[in-house]
Amino acid sequence: MTGAGSPRSLRSRLRSLRTAAFGADPAGERMERIRRSPNFADGVFQNPVGARTRPSGSSMVEFAKIYFQKEARARRSPIGTVPVHPTTVADLAKPAATGLRLTWMGHSSVLAEIDGRRVLFDPVWGERCSPFDFVGPKRLHPVPAPLAALGPVDVVVISHDHYDHLDLPTIRELVSTDTVFAVPLGVGAHLERWGVSADRLRELDWNESTKVAGLRLTATPARHFCGRGLRNQQHTLWASWVVEGSEHRIYHSGDTGYFPGFKDTGAEHGPFDATMIQIGAYSEYWPDIHMTPAEGMQAHLDLQGGQPAGVMLPIHWCTFNLAPHPWAEPGEGTVAAASRAGARIALPRPGEPFEPTGESVPVAQWWRSVATAPAGGWGASAGTGTPEVAPTA
Question: Of all residues in the chain, what percent carry a pLDDT higher than 70?
Answer without folding.
Answer: 87
